[in-house]
């Protein structure tokens, strides 16, 4: 803006204007009084302490509602009279004075910090309790939904299932493969460094084979699927809740549980063991690749040794964990998605919640499984 | 109507020449011309899918047209390279169909967003005051300023959207179906509000609507979109004089007649009151 607004105060003259009966000075605005110009003079205006009887707007070239508001609220504060306003200015002042009669807060009142911290802790404890109950309820609904489907298998959404299997499984092949290959290399390399100290680098095969098939293959896959698909479920279903698509479904008589949730859960439970085995195989190939390069163990020897050193129950351990982890990832994603109520921010929060809940539960359960399978003699 | 627009004319805040918009094979606008006069409320009507919203989005620079020229308040929108080039954003306000309020901010904070963005030198106290009176100017109660959009009804959300559109005292106001989804009383009140704001603030209003009552009540002129261009523009009597079938059907259909009756009755009522 080329021009700026300004004002001057002439000290009170007793005999001057007929209007200045209060005896105060005369505040004279000049220049355009607009939203783009008043910002600079506002704080000075707020600090005027001397008595002002009249506020002269004759020198104002242009005025908008913000300028009118500044002039009007100043006149209210100083108990001064507004003079010299053009017809436009009078109209605007009239309008803002009608609108500005009531006060009111702009921001939500927030608790002081020393109360906010305990309040938030309390809220999240209650939230956690509710969340557990909610998941339990959701799980119950899911079981009921499955029971209904078992009675009427024709209602099962085969197309949705296949589509989700593609999204969860097939589309994840590249990233899961790359990740597993690299993890296989890391295990082989780090294991070999330690085992070489005992001259036992041949045991790298045992390390890579058993670790990937039993633990890492399925665990890494579960984490990857939680990040890829669990989050996608939560965001998709959450957005559908916001746009009332879920409500629309319900009114048409389509159960969102059958149409949206169950295909996703079934797809994840089916794809997870497959991805887990795939991940283990690629991990072993990664280990064999590194071993042939640096340890002098030929690639094919590495693979045939795997067959000798890895007991079959290791494969079963990995395969059995797959559907369970898939269930956890899919249920937390779908549950969090269906909880979205208010706004876009909640979609984000719920998506984060879904991934955190899935990964945390998967790791806790994995620890449980490790102890369990060893105890039943599948060590 | 397709004279050159290389020299800005303050009488026409919006000028569109030879606008072509197409999505893939589907052509929405073909050599569309439009002039909006300063200080008028221009109603834009047309059947569904005639590109009313696309036209508005083109004018405010959200949709890059295939070809053609658009000039708003003396500066060209079509030759702008990116968003930062469009410096006149502080001189217009836009009300989107659903209000498009920022859902994580309160209504008052929504109104403050443009102020913060364009005039950071305005102190918090003044900014809060401005937000407060804008909220009330839009016909909302003062306590609505601290509410979140999800806590408001559809009509209140529209008013809140209007408050945000008016935040910077724009010269130009774009309204996309402001009365759609409002009850008749709320819609009439919104019409009144827009009319009185236009009178007091001297706004030029570009108003997309399907609401015939709005057209009769507040629009100075009406532009009709059909056959991929503006087929007619003028006051409603002028439009009625044309013999385009769509215009005739639009204004002389059952709804058009009903709206006209209401308008006539409303116009006649004060006259009889003074006569009696």
Care to describe what's here?
Chain A folds into two domains: 6-99, Transcription Regulator spoIIAA (2-Layer Sandwich), CATH 3.30.750; 138-375, no CATH class. Chain A is 69% helix and 5% strand. Chain A has helices at residues 42-46, 65-78, 87-99, 113-151, 158-168, 173-196, 204-242, 245-252, 256-295, 299-309, 312-338, 344-375, and strands at residues 6-10, 25-30, 52-56, 81-83. Chain A has a four-stranded mixed sheet, covered by helices on one side. Chain A is elongated. The model of chain A is unreliable at 14-21 (pLDDT under 50). With 276 residues, chain B is an alpha/beta fold. Chain B is 39% helix and 22% strand. Chain B has nine helices and ten strands. In chain B, the strands form two sheets. A six-stranded mixed sheet of chain B has the order 6-7-8-3-9-10. The termini of chain B are far apart. The chains are: A mainly alpha (379), B alpha/beta (276). The A-B interface holds A 34-36, 38-40, 42-43, 46, 64-66, 69-70, 73, 88, 91-92, 94-96, 99-109, 342-345 and B 90, 103-104, 106, 108-109, 112, 115, 118-119, 121-123, 125-126, 128-134, 136-137, 141-143, 145-146, 148-150, 168-169, 200-202.
């Amino acid at each position: 803006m080329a021009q700026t607004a300004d004002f001057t105060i002439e000290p009170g003259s007793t005999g001057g204007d007929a209007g200045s009966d209060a005896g105060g000075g005369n505040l004279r605005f000049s220049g355009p009084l607009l939203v783009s110009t008043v910002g600079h003079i506002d704080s000075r205006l707020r600090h005027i302490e001397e008595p002002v009887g009249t506020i002269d707007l004759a020198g104002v070239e242009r005025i908008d509602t913000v300028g009118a508001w500044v002039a009007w609220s100043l006149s209210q504060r100083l108990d001064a009279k507004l003079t010299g306003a053009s017809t436009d200015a009078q109209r605007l002042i009239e309008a803002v004075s009608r609108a500005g009669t009531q006060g009111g807060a702009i921001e939500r009142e927030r608790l002081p910090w020393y109360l906010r911290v305990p309040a938030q802790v309390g809220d999240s404890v209650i939230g956690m309790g509710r969340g557990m109950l909610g998941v339990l309820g959701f799980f119950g609904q899911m079981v009921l939904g499955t029971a209904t489907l078992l009675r009427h298998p024709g209602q099962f959404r085969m197309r949705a299932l296949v589509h989700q299997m593609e999204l969860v499984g097939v589309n994840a092949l590249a990233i899961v493969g790359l990740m597993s290959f690299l993890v296989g290399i890391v295990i082989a390399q780090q294991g070999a460094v330690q085992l070489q100290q005992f001259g036992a680098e041949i045991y790298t095969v045992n390390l890579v084979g058993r670790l990937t098939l039993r633990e890492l293959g399925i665990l890494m896959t579960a984490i990857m699927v939680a990040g890829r698909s669990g989050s996608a479920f939560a965001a998709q279903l959450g957005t559908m809740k916001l746009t009332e698509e879920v409500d629309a479904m319900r009114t048409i008589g389509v159960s969102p549980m059958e149409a949206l949730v169950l295909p996703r859960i079934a797809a994840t439970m089916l794809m997870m063991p497959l991805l887990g085995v795939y991940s283990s195989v690629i991990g072993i190939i990664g280990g064999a690749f590194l071993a042939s390069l640096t340890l002098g163990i030929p690639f094919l020897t590495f693979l045939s040794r795997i067959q000798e050193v890895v007991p079959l129950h290791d494969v079963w351990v990995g395969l059995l964990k797959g559907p369970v982890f898939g269930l956890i990832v899919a249920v937390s994603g779908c549950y969090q998605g269906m909880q979205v109520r208010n706004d876009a921010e909640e979609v984000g929060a719920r998506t984060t919640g879904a991934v955190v809940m899935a990964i945390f539960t998967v790791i806790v359960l994995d620890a449980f499984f490790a102890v369990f399978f060893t105890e039943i003699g599948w060590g | 109507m397709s004279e050159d627009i290389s020299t800005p004319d303050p009488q026409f805040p919006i000028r569109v020449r030879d606008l072509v918009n197409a999505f893939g094979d589907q052509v929405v606008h073909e050599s569309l011309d439009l002039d909006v006069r300063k200080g008028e409320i221009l109603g834009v009507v047309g059947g569904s899918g005639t590109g009313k919203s696309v036209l508005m989005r083109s004018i405010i620079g959200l949709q890059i047209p295939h070809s053609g020229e658009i000039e708003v308040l003396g500066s060209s929108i079509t030759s702008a390279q990116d968003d930062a080039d469009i410096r006149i954003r502080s001189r217009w306000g836009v009300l989107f169909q659903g209000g498009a309020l920022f859902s994580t901010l309160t209504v008052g904070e929504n109104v403050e967003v443009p102020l913060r963005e364009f005039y950071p030198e305005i102190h918090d106290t003044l900014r809060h005051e401005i937000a407060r009176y804008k909220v009330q100017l839009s016909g909302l109660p003062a306590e609505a300023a601290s509410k979140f959009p999800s806590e408001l009804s559809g009509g209140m959300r529209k008013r809140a959207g209007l408050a945000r559109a008016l935040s910077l005292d724009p010269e130009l106001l774009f309204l996309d179906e402001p009365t759609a989804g409002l009850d008749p009383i709320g819609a009439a009140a919104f019409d009144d509000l827009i009319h009185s704001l236009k009178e007091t603030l001297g706004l030029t209003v570009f108003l997309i609507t399907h609401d015939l009552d709005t057209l009769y009540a507040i629009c100075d002129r009406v532009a009709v979109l059909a056959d991929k261009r503006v087929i007619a523009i003028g006051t409603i009597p002028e439009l009625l004089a044309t013999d385009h079938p769509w215009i005739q059907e639009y204004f002389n259909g059952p709804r058009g007649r009903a709206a006209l009756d209401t308008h006539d009755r409303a116009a006649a009522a004060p006259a009889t009151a003074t006569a009696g």
